[in-house]
Amino acid sequence: MSQSDTDFLQEVADSDYKYGFVTDIEADTVPKGLNEAVIRLISEKKEEPEWMLERRLKAFRHWLTLQEKDKYPRWAHIKYPDVDFQNISYYSAPNNKPKYESLDEVDPELLETFSKLGISLEEQKRLTGVAVDIVMDSVSVATTFSDQLAELGIIFCSFGEAVEKHPELIKKYMGSVVPYTDNFYACLNSAVFSDGSFCYIPKGVRCPMELSTYFRINEAGTGQFERTLIIAEEGSYVSYLEGCTAPMRDENQMHAAIVEIIAHKDAEVKYSTIQNWYPGNEEGKGGIYNFVTKRGICAGDNAKISWTQLETGSAITWKYPSVILKGDHSVGEFYSVAFTKGKQQADTGTKMIHLGKNTRSTIISKGISAGNSQNSYRGLVKVNAKAEGARNFSQCDSMLLGDRCGAHTFPYLEIENPTAQVEHEATTSKVGEDQIFYCNQRGIGEEEAIKLIVNGFCKDILAKLPMEFAIEAQKLLAIELEGSVG
Amino acid sequence: MTTIESPHRVEDRISELYSMLDGHTLNGNSAALKNLRKKAIEAFAAQGLPTRKTEAWKYTPVEKKLSVDHTVYHENRPLPLSKEEAHAFLVPGIDAYLAVTVNGKYIAELSNIEGLPNGTVFTPIDQASGSLGDLLVSRLDTQSDSSKSPFVALNTAFLKDGLVLHVPAKVHVDKPIYVLHLFDTDAHTIVQPRMLCVAERESEVTLIEQYVSLNEASHFINVVSEWAVSQQATFKHYQIQDLNTASTAVFNQYAYQEQHSYFATHTSTLKGGLIRNNLEIVPDAEECESHLLGFLLGSGTMHVDNHTLVDHKKPNCFSNELYKNILDDQSTGVFNGKVFVHQDAQKINAYQSNKSITLTNKARMYSKPELEIYADDVRCSHGATTGQLDAEALFYLRSRGLSQKQARSILLKAFAHDVIDAIEFEPLRDYVDSRLLESL
Fold this sequence. Notes:
Chain A is 31% helix and 28% strand. By secondary structure, chain A is an alpha/beta fold. Chain A starts with a helix and ends in a 5-residue tail after the last helix. Chain B is an alpha/beta fold. Chain B has helices at 10-21, 31-47, 83-87, 130-139, 150-157, 391-399, 404-421, 426-439; strands at residues 71-72, 97-102, 105-106, 121-124, 163-167, 177-183, 189-191, 194-199, 204-213, 219-229, 234-242, 248-257, 262-271, 274-283, 289-298, 303-312, 318-327, 332-341, 349-358, 364-373, 379-387. The radius of gyration of chain B is 22 Å and the shape is globular.
């Protein structure tokens, strides 16, 4: 990592203090700590119905049983100090108070990054928390979108709103893919989740837009315990985008989100993520711990779920977007690029659980590690005894930039049906000297050459992202690479 | 009020057995050995047996195979068979120095190790004498580590009858050393063969081992082998595992390589109950070459777990791993291979491959090929495939007039071809081949 880059990150880290981040200590913040009273308080503040509180309490009581040392998940290839769960504030309402009065106050380097990424001025303001009259603007845009969506019968709203307006759907689907007993962090989320998104695509409807556009304008700061639920009815299609390329800062160190996707017969859901949260300073201090449980179920025949992710941020990434292939002929896909540098640690991958007949899954994972970072792929392909004719192809390639980083592969293949065809291959290598030499010969400098080669290495994956996202992603990768080589 | 005797843990039972045997049956060994055993039993008690929750034993429920009814084999049974009967188990046609053990104990009257080249020592550990004996005893449990594996600890705690092989510098052992391990015990008996091999500088030796059950009793075989391969030495190892279906076997095998050495091991698992192969290779110097190969012929309810680690500590080494499994009936195969490349161990070429064919609906395969790499200038790759016989290929052969059985055996033979052909000794190769054909 070059000096300028770390300086930049350092400044980003410091800027909170420099400009005095405002934390609203009015009624909307719950004191630190976690107990039943806090859960009740969260539920009360969100004006939730009784059944939702019951669900939270149930999850919380289960979470209490997970407190013994051996139940805390330690299996991932990441190192971090024990998290003090009593030292976290579990609820703070979205804060509308501006951090800055105008863009001039914002760190110029941050703005430069934005312009490199091609983010519009309005959005720059929103992302940096500048107080301008964007509310009008986004409301009008958002309204246009929601009218268009409502016409088609698509429900797209915050999770809280869905609890209020569509309790039957929430009751039916929430926790059906990721039950509160699933894992430590999923359980924590089920007890304390702040808010998130809810998306319902009715039968036979093809969602006409990438749901990101809306999301990016409407849904900022959903908090550290997000919960997303996407339901695609028979024959529907939706492409959903989460996150954005801009470096996101957050005062919360610990994030534990849940994403659940239900794809019914013939439905297709495409979920793309770009994650670029604050990775911490040079020593890896202060970065975000990102513990996410993402899982989709192909509940009906011919359903398809596809996860695409570009992970460049967070001090710790612990994330395994998975697909349960229950319907016959259903398809699961996982495309991932994980880039780590500095002291970042990523342990990410997928689970493909084949239950139905003739189910297919594809896993392509590209890991790039630089600096002192550790980058692991961990994945499971399970073919159940009844999953006749299942097919899986996995490819996990790692690239190392520098001799102080690590790249690891931990694939699990569990095959219980003889008609399954499962292939896994992985390679680990560095950028070839001959490749760089070839570029140099043609007048391309070393840094440009490496950008070119790394982009080529990830091209297959980035091409899976929706168009405008793909271009941003490429630029983001180039920025991340700056100074992390040589 | 009635008092119920508290149910034992297996670990407590083992410790009890240790206290019972130490000082009696285990007597006669040197103080150094006694000390080693004492440390080992403490290490065993500290670790306990692995359970299903232990990640490394996730797919292999070995703890269910040990109960409080188990005892550690310590008696001296009369020889269960004659020399001719013993030799009938041998793979025919191999010209070798022959050693036969029964329940881990070397039996001179069944063996023939006459004529080993000058200076080569091959003897039971308690008969290794003088400075060489001390040296060998001091090297015990240096590659394996009782504090890291409960099974190594269990073996070391009751160590008495092990074999040691010492090949002096520059000696090339002209014929392979062939060790036939026979097992003849009552049910619920733990038998623990032990071997230490030291190949000194520029020496060359080939070791063939064959493990055979003589009866159908549920013995629990816990093997520990340590192989030290010094500078520019060559050590080749072949083993055939051919145990009864009621048995459980844990093989703990450790190789340590010095500069420019060559090490190869080849395991053919033909029959057994539950078998776990723990294989660890440490190329601890530059320019080492290591080969790990395995062939598994799974049938019945066999459960075979190959767990390997190649621990590249130094740069410029080469390792190649290939495990092929054919899984028939209700057999289960597990492969967990790990290649570890330490920081600054640059220019490593490491390859790892695991290929399996499942033939029935009840056969299972769990594969976990891992890479853990901390150096950038390396070439490491791994691959794992699991599938069934290609229907089109079968059809092709059938349409040319071959029977289903013939077609199947041609395809399976072709599948296993590369790993079986890696056996350098023709008689041994033919033997494994014939066992494959027999099973089809």
